[in-house]
Amino acid sequence: MLKAADALGGAGYRVGVVSTDTTSWATAADAAVRQTRRWDSDSVVDYGAATGRALRLKSGLRFKAMQTIAGVIGPSRVPASVAIRAYARVHDELVSAIVSQRPDFIYGGTTGALAAVADAARRLRVPYAIDFEDFHSGEHNGPGSDLTNALAARVEQLVIPEARFMTAGSPMIADAYGARYGAHPVTIHNTFTTMSDAVAERPDEVLRLYWFSQTLGPQRGLDDVIRAAGQAGVGVELHLRARVIPGFLESIRELSAAVAPRLSLVLHEPAVPDEMVKLAQPYDAGLACEEPHTLNRQICLTNKIFTYLAAGIPVLMTRTRAQARLEPELGDAAFGYECGDVAGLARIIGQLFRDRAWRCRSRAAARAAAARRWHWEHADDRGALLAAVAGAIA
């Protein structure tokens, strides 16, 4: 959505932004982003623990009540108003924030905003478009996931029919929405502006691997990376940038000490979106070690891959369905392995450590792949979004 706002503003549209504020690190990151942008309007729905306590309490009570009703009656049988509020915690506040800006066209996505985009557009009698960055009705697993996924499906059914267009974050996500609803989303990859390769070659004492996300916790494939580093028997630095789920860092440190004595874990704080490509540059390779524990994880293409390519570093990726399809397109910039294949990953890590020429070729291939296709300014990404918006409001 940030790149969409930038692209539309650059194309001459008057752009208003509506967002939420829920966590302290994101508040700081948002403030840094706003210093470099001047949108025509900017509304924040704040329900952070420190700054939005009243709304946090109000929305939390409403959310739990709606989820209880939906769980008892059934997601497909409760009124739409209940299903929406059982799925999106601050739906009402998002709708109010959107309506207050009086837009002529609304484009939005992520879990909590899907229904808000459609509801606000109906109130204003303006067209809208939806972004499916993920396959939301196949996004969750674990306790309560059946209810959440069913609520997501109900919301998808409500917002798709009247959308002027839809976008999806990967070809397989677009295909999944087509198979389930007969929809035809435009695939717009979460690519980024490339950066020149300004990183000097370093000595070979250690292989530096990089991974980032919003949160650091289980089911991220990092256990396999640690075990593979141990099997490779080479010096590895594993750099992790994310908020840590309590207790998880200790568990992987214990694992590292037990199976990978030559591995060093280095934790970094989350950073602002505009810095993510630059921050990935110093490393030898980036990790996209997704575990296929949900349908969405099997078919999505995360922003990790395209961040690494824009930074000019190769990608070590699990062969989920979507990533396996992308791997041949990246050539020497991608090293694929099956999820759980620790020995296979260990061979890749060992060869990258020992073969400087291979590392150089893979970096060159990453830069070439980004320059050729996998950058935000490409006609099939930013260009496709601008074309869809122009067609929707013509």
Q: What name does CATH use for the topology of the largest domain?
A: Rossmann fold
Work out the strand percent.
Answer: 15-25%
Fraction of residues in H or I helices: 40-55%
Kindly report the spatial arrangement of strands forming the biggest sheet. 9-8-7-10-11-12
Task: Return the CATH architecture of the largest domain.
Answer: 3-Layer(aba) Sandwich
Instruction: Please give the domain count.
Output: 2
Low-confidence stretches: none
Q: What is the element string, with H for helices and E for strands?
A: HEHEHHHEHEHEHEEHEHEHEHHEHEHHH
Rg (C-alpha, Å):
22 Å
Count of alpha and pi helical runs: 17
Overall pLDDT metric:
95
Main sheet summary: 6 strands, parallel
Number of strands: 12
The top level CATH class name of the largest domain: Alpha Beta
The N- and C-terminal alpha carbons lie at a distance of 21 Å
Structural class: alpha/beta
